[in-house]
Design brief:
Layout (H helix, E strand, L loop, with lengths): L9 H11 L9 H6 L3 E2 L2 E9 L5 E13 L5 H14 L6 E9 L5 E2 L6 H18 L4 H8 L25 H14 L11 E13 L8 E7 L5 E5 L8 H13 L6 E5 L15 H29 L7 E3 L2 E3 L4 E3 H7 L5 E2 L2 E8 L6 E13 L5 E11 L6 H20 L5 E2 L2 E2 L18 E5 L22 H13 L10 H9 L2
Parallel strand pairs: 1-5, 3-4, 8-9, 16-19
Antiparallel strand pairs: 2-3, 6-15, 7-8, 7-14, 10-11, 11-12, 13-14, 15-16, 17-18
């Protein structure tokens, strides 16, 4: 999630090769990971809201300061993105954004899951919760009153909406309903006994575009071989999130075959086509759509050829695992391939290509809620219930999509409660895991995940992205839950035990 988005070490390796004339490999130690690799942008966010007594927002202002560290990297991109969907998720007649990013002598900041949204959403959703408390209003109801609805203009800090951002589908209302119902229903987990344990519930809303703005190019190629297996060439990479599985599913669905007939080559420029890169949650919405186009083109070539061979309409032909079914019989793929025009044949198979430029983006929604218990004697936080509603469009692989949401929540729990890069005068004070606290298995409870039933107009088979977005509402939901539990707002993450204890102890 962002680790391959800038060149900070590669140039040094290239320089070493030029100086030594030998192959060079830099194997980073754990310490190097903290002092030489990028970190998430530290943000300082101030939010001011105006609202009527019935909860309708009248003004929304954010003041954002971002620390890019010693190098620019993604300074401008993260700043713009962080201030976009974090406030455009709410309808409000008056909005103002003041944002700047500065160089410092700190560790360079870079792309990280959410691309800045998690930081600004923390500020906006904390302010929304304070407004709900001031108005004595249910936090879910306050959001329902003010969130954008399908077809609303997506206003950020400009006179005109973002030109490439469109409504492909809308499931925020379903996410709000599902999470609220789950929280009201409970999960049977009781708070620890004792008056020193205080319980609170908190929620937050997040919206994110389905890819990077103004274009993300992906070119794909599919070859149908005479024995009925398919060779896919895709430029994007697999980072363990299951992109290759979804790509194979897309092609298998269009071609009427099984996954064991799919062979996929990716990331290799000898066997794959060009792709802008595996970032901005584009694996399904861009590369997947390019594969979908290639599969439809290949299917059309094969069916049209079979129809000509049999003298029937194309509508009377259908793809099967081992050939093409026509009105009277089944043609083998070798028969069909032999009759395909030469311009569509290569290496003994039929070839089709697809391209997607990603010139329009849709929107994903995530709503998260926590029920937590806080020990006011020590500041310890125990998560009693964790719930997320996610609008991913058509969920093509529920198990993998569930894993993406659960992984995003686990990562965000770390950012919310434990993880902190300590820097003093440019020197990293937490360069090893002994002092950089990561969440352990016992720290990450099961998360109930509810998917909205939507189908996106832009994505393949109605799918949307769900890689970065699960992270974004979690820190804000955690902060709001702790605020409801102890009656005090914490203004700095992580919401660690010592910070909670100091806040409760007073000045």
């Amino acid at each position: 999630f962002g680790g391959k988005q800038e060149i900070l070490t590669e140039d040094l390796v290239a320089y070493a090769v030029l100086q030594t004339g030998k192959p060079v490999s830099w194997e980073m130690s754990r310490r190097d990971e903290f002092v030489s690799a990028t970190v998430r942008h530290p943000f300082r966010v101030r939010v001011r809201l105006g609202a009527r007594r019935d909860g309708v927002l009248t003004a929304l202002k954010i003041d954002v300061l971002s620390d890019t560290g010693a190098y620019g990297n993604h300074a401008a991109g993260v700043l713009f993105h962080s201030c976009a969907e974090s406030i455009s998720v709410y309808n409000c007649p008056v909005k103002r954004v003041d944002a700047e990013v500065v160089y410092t002598n700190n560790v360079p900041s870079g792309a990280f899951r959410g691309y800045g949204l998690g930081q600004v959403i923390l500020g906006v959703e904390s302010a929304m919760d304070e407004l709900a408390i001031a108005l004595d209003m249910d936090p879910f109801e306050l959001r329902r009153i003010n969130v954008v609805r399908d077809g609303d203009p997506l206003m950020v800090a400009h006179a005109e909406p973002e030109a490439d951002l469109v409504w492909g589908s809308y499931g925020l209302d379903q996410c709000l309903d599902a999470v609220e119902a789950a929280l009201c229903r409970g999960n049977g987990v009781a708070a620890p006994e004792g008056e020193h344990w205080r319980v609170g519930e908190g929620m937050a809303v997040a919206m994110i575009a389905t890819m990077a703005p103004f274009g993300h190019i992906s070119k794909t190629k599919i070859t149908l071989c005479p024995d009925g297996h398919y060779v896919l060439g895709v430029g994007t990479s697999e980072f363990g999130n299951g992109t290759t599985t979804v790509h194979a599913q897309i092609v298998a669905t269009v071609m009427g075959t099984d996954l064991d007939r799919i062979e996929l080559t990716n990331s290799d420029t000898d066997g794959a086509e060009y792709d802008s890169g595996a970032f901005a949650s584009a694996g399904t919405t861009v590369a997947g759509k390019a594969l979908h186009s290639a599969a439809l083109a290949l299917r059309g070539i094969v069916l049209e050829t079979a129809a000509e061979l049999e003298g029937v309409d194309v509508g009377q032909c259908s793809m099967e695992r081992d050939g093409v079914r026509t009105r009277d019989r089944r043609l083998s793929f070798s028969e069909v391939i032999a009759a395909v025009p030469a311009e569509h044949r290569h290496g003994g198979g039929v070839v089709a290509t697809g391209c997607e430029v990603g010139d329009f983006r849709s929107l994903c929604f995530n709503v998260h809620a926590f029920r937590v218990a806080v020990d006011v004697r020590t500041g310890e936080v125990r998560i009693l219930q964790s719930v997320q509603g996610a609008d991913a469009g058509t969920v093509m692989n529920p198990e993998q999509c569930l894993g993406q949401v659960e992984g995003g929540v686990a990562q965000a729990i770390g950012a919310s409660l434990y993880e902190e890069v300590l820097v003093d005068q440019g020197v990293v004070g937490s360069p090893v895991f002994r002092v950089y606290r990561l969440p352990q298995m016992a720290d990450v409870p099961p998360t109930e995940v509810y998917f909205a039933e939507t189908s996106d107009d832009l994505g393949p088979f109605g799918a949307k992205s769900m890689s970065e977005s699960p992270f974004n509402p979690v820190p804000a939901a955690m902060g709001n839950a702790i605020r409801r539990a102890i009656g005090m707002r914490l203004y700095e993450t992580p919401f660690s035990r010592d910070r909670i204890w100091r806040a409760l102890a007073g000045p």
